[in-house]
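[step 3/7] fold_predict: job queued, chain A
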Amino acid sequence: METKLTEANDNKPKGKSPTHVIWQVIGEGDDARWIRVGAGWENRDGKGMSLRFDAYPVVGRTVIRELSDPDQKA
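[step 4/7] structure written:
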């Protein structure tokens, strides 16, 4: 059986820009460090999201925020 390797960008929906950014947050308040770890796309039915992680956070918490600037790359 042949295994096909894919690039991380192959997971994103074709032709759609991300609507959300995924962040790893370490710490609290003004001392918190926010590290971008992925992007998200709303599903067509509006009942969920497709997520693409560039890194998997193992400490802190994961926060998904709406993309504030549509021209900004996620």
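[step 5/7] annotate
The radius of gyration is 14 Å.
The CA atoms of residues 41 and 47 lie 11 Å apart.
exit 0
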